[in-house]
């Protein structure tokens, strides 16, 4: 019984250690996704403006290669955003599973009387 109790305490400690890191990573991924959306909007705006300038130029200035580069950059931004979105969803599931496991282990420990001798502030 003591070995199981020690394993549960170690597992709970690991879960408590991982939970803040997971939340921090989730916040960073969310922030990056927001900046990716903003970058994509700026790329779209710039591409539109280049097309407009190209249409109104009296001098034959070929901006198509630059527009294509911008659109390629936009495509990569969207791809990275999708990857980040998938990573964030996995982090959310992991965070949910960590919280669920923490609650389950805490309930098991409380039921076995491990927390009976500890004060509520611990």
Structure summarized in a few sentences:
The protein has helices at 2-56, 64-112. It is an all-alpha fold and 122 residues long. The model has no long low-confidence stretch (mean pLDDT 80).
Helices and strands, with pairings:
Elements: H1 2-56, H2 64-112
Helix pairs in contact: 1-2
How would you characterize this protein structure?
- This protein has 122 residues and is mainly α.
- It has a single domain (2-112), classed as Single alpha-helices involved in coiled-coils or other helix-helix interfaces, CATH 1.20.5.
- It has two helices and no strands.
- The protein has helices at residues 2-56, 64-112.
- The longest helix is centred in the N-terminal third of the chain and has 55 residues, at 2-56.
- The radius of gyration is 26 Å and the shape is rod-shaped.
- The model has no long low-confidence stretch (mean pLDDT 80).
What is the overall shape? rod-shaped
- What do we call the CATH topology? Single alpha-helices involved in coiled-coils or other helix-helix interfaces
**SS-derived structural category:** mainly alpha
Instruction: Compute the average pLDDT.
Output: 80
Distance between the termini: 22 Å
Strand portion: under 5%
Helix content: over 70%
CATH architecture: Up-down Bundle
Q: What is the number of beta strands?
A: 0
Output the helix-strand order.
Answer: HH
How many structurally independent domains? Answer: 1
Spans of 5+ residues with little confidence (pLDDT < 50)? none
- In DSSP terms (H or I, runs of 4 or more residues), the helix count works out at 2
Gyration radius (Cα, Å) is 26 Å
Largest sheet: none
CATH class: Mainly Alpha
């Amino acid at each position: 019984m003591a070995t199981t109790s020690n394993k549960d305490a170690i597992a709970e400690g690991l879960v408590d250690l991982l939970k803040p890191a997971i939340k921090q990573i989730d916040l960073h991924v969310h922030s990056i996704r927001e900046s990716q959306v903003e970058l994509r909007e700026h790329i779209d705006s710039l591409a539109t403006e280049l097309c407009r300038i190209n249409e109104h130029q009296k001098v034959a200035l070929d901006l198509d290669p630059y527009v294509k580069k911008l659109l390629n950059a936009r495509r990569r931004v969207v791809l990275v955003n999708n990857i980040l979105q998938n990573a964030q969803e996995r982090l959310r599931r992991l965070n949910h599973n960590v919280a669920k496991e923490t609650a389950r282990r805490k309930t098991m420990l409380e039921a076995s009387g491990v927390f009976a001798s500890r004060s509520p502030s611990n």
